[in-house]
Design a protein that fits this description.
The complex is a heterodimer of chains A (118) and B (198). Chain A is globular. In chain A, helix 1 packs across helix 2. Chain A is an alpha+beta fold and 118 residues long. In chain A, strands 1, 4, 5 and 6 form a 4-stranded mixed beta sheet that branches. In chain A, strands 2-3 form a two-stranded antiparallel sheet. Helices cover 28% and strands 36% of the residues of chain A. Chain B has 2 domains: 94 residues, no CATH class; 88 residues, Dihydrodipicolinate Reductase, domain 2 (2-Layer Sandwich). In chain B, the strands form 2 sheets. Chain B has a 3-stranded mixed beta sheet with strand order 3-4-5. In chain B, strands 1-2 form a two-stranded antiparallel sheet. The chains are: A alpha+beta (118), B alpha+beta (198). Chains A and B meet through helix 2 and strand 6 of A and strand 2, helix 5 and helix 6 of B.
Chain lengths: 118, 198
């Protein structure tokens, strides 16, 4: 998943959401962002929509980031523990480290390499 | 879930329409209270305009027809049942939550959570690694605040004792259950003929 970065017209909140989602999706064990059963876990990023991330103001110029993901068939706890660090690292590399508040991870679905038996 | 979302939309639409009807009725009643007597902007004039006396007569005759002894009137009965079903559906739309409860685990400053379907799938995949197990069905029920319960039904081979299969499944699920604060309940049954051991 990759959304072209926009130089202007995008708020710090949306930029942080993009950076966080990209970092999460790049992590080994994450299949994709997941907008949820009724498509409510999204963030508008310019004309695009980022599925699977919600960033909200937390006060003092910081934003909390909630990630909603489809994981691969891997240990979820370990993956969930690893992701906030990866998101913080990515935010720091984009000079957004100080704007990032808490990072929450929710696994909405899991992909089986052979598909789940019906 | 989609059905509940649809019902919730219907409740909102009907609620809005009822409010419009209420507002218009209130406005009309207020306007027709301006004058007294039986003409102009008076309540008897409003009743006359709306032909309320005709409506009363119609309702009265309908109710007396319904009260009559004789064969069941199918149309009013069906309408009544339909309205009861509609009312129950609207109540569902009001009271059934659309947001699914998640299973949460403790995690640093943020939150780590998983949807119960995702956890059930992982639990099933883990439990199938247990020795002597041919297939697994796992259901997760989130707790009110944290953790939850996981109910597993394992099919075992004829050579595997129930206690052994149960222990093996529990061992496989241990890391997942510890992390998410899940309590396990494992039941086993003999696999059907043709099932193959994992």
């Amino acid at each position: 998943m990759s959304v072209a970065q926009r130089a202007g017209g995008v708020t710090a909140r949306a930029e942080l959401a993009r950076v966080a989602l990209e970092a999460a999706v790049k992590a080994r064990g994450v299949a994709a962002g997941n907008a949820g059963p009724d498509g409510r876990y999204v963030t508008a990023y310019g004309d695009a929509t980022l599925a699977g991330v919600v960033a909200a103001a937390e006060g003092e110029g910081r934003f909390s980031v909630d990630l909603f993901l489809t994981a691969e068939l891997v240990p979820l706890l370990a993956l969930g523990a690893r992701l906030p660090g990866a998101v913080r690292e990515a935010a720091r590399s984009q000079d957004l480290g100080e704007r990032l508040g808490s990072v929450s991870v929710t696994f909405l679905d899991v992909e089986h390499p052979l598909g789940w038996p019906s | 879930m989609a059905f509940v979302i649809l019902l919730r939309g219907l409740v909102r639409l009907l609620g809005f329409l009822l409010l419009v009807v209420l507002a218009v009725t209130g406005l009309a009643l207020t306007a027709f209270c301006i004058q007294g007597g039986e003409s102009g902007l008076s309540l008897p004039a409003l009743a006359e305009t709306l032909r309320l006396h005709e409506l009363r007569d119609n309702v009265e005759s309908l109710l007396s027809e319904l009260e009559d002894t004789g064969p069941l009137d199918l149309l009013p009965a069906l309408l009544g049942l339909g309205l009861i079903a509609l009312a129950l559906a609207l109540l569902l739309g009001v009271f059934v939550p659309t947001r699914e409860r998640l299973v949460s685990a403790k995690s640093g400053d943020g939150r780590l959570a998983a949807r119960r379907r995702a956890l059930g799938q992982v639990a099933g995949a883990l439990a199938e690694r247990g020795g002597g197990v041919t297939s697994i069905k796992a259901k997760v029920k989130p707790g009110r605040r944290q953790g939850g319960k996981i109910k597993v039904r394992a099919d075992r081979t004829r050579q595997t004792e129930p206690a052994e299969a149960k222990r093996s499944v529990q061992e496989q699920l241990e890391p997942l259950c510890d992390g998410f604060g899940l309590t396990t309940k494992v039941s086993t049954r003999l696999a059907d003929r043709g099932s193959r051991v994992q």
